[in-house]
Amino acid sequence: MKINIRGIYFDNLTLSETVELILARLNKGEQTAVFTPNSEIVQSCIEDNSLYEVINSAEVVCPDGIGVVKAAKILQTPLKGKVAGIEVGERLIASLTDGSKSIFFMGSKPGVAEKAAEELQRKYPGIVVAGTNDGYFKKEGAENDAVIEKINASGADVLFVCLGAPAQEKWIYANRGRLNVTVMLGLGGSLDGYAGVVKRAPAIFIKLGLEWFYRLLCEPWRFKRMLKLPKFYFGTLRFKLTGK
Ligand code: UDP
Description:
- The longest helix is centred in the C-terminal third of the chain and has 15 residues.
- Strand 7, helix 8 and strand 8 form a beta-alpha-beta unit.
- The mean pLDDT is 97.
- The chain is built from 13 helices and eight strands.
- It is an alpha/beta fold.
């Protein structure tokens, strides 16, 4: 069942249930996009309505942020909890160690996808990496066509798209019809995380719902982007009171 939070339809699932759903669709060969919007992205949709169609086009939409979970509570349609994209990606990989399905990693700076693949293969022996590509190519025309051809030629079943949001969602929306993969996930900076290039917040920050704060400390240039978080929160309070 989907829960409408400010116009985005989220799946109300735990992390395990989300991965089970993705695996079931993968095994049935049903093409599936998985997006994991946080409140920054929902706020972007509110500010640019054309983004709603892109985000809501995914078959699986996970609430990757405490802001979305809080908003669900405010709107009295609670979600089971935050489902972090980076964890969905890793659990999915951990479920593919029998080697029957292969994975393609696309995104991040040159070398990062390969490093992530190496780390994950070490951690989860048996997984099959079909190929990798960095995320710094022109997202249209010949360069884009070449990347799509490379992915299709690899025979991958699962594709990680890590270009940052909303670029990765727009890319999947625009190109999914030409991709032969079954499951494609928009996973932001996850490859940086798997490769160990960027560290995730310590567990205590995650537990306290302060992962965003840790990120702000480490990457203060995110401040302007992060102003969307209080905007979304107070906007949701107003929406609850006034319906607008
Ligand atoms: N990135 C990319 N191509 C681009 C721009 C960005 O592959 O043209 C990558 C960047 O290297 C980083 C990821 O996209 O690995 C964005 O990570 P971030 O943590 O900012 O993701 P977000 O918070 O936007 O989901």
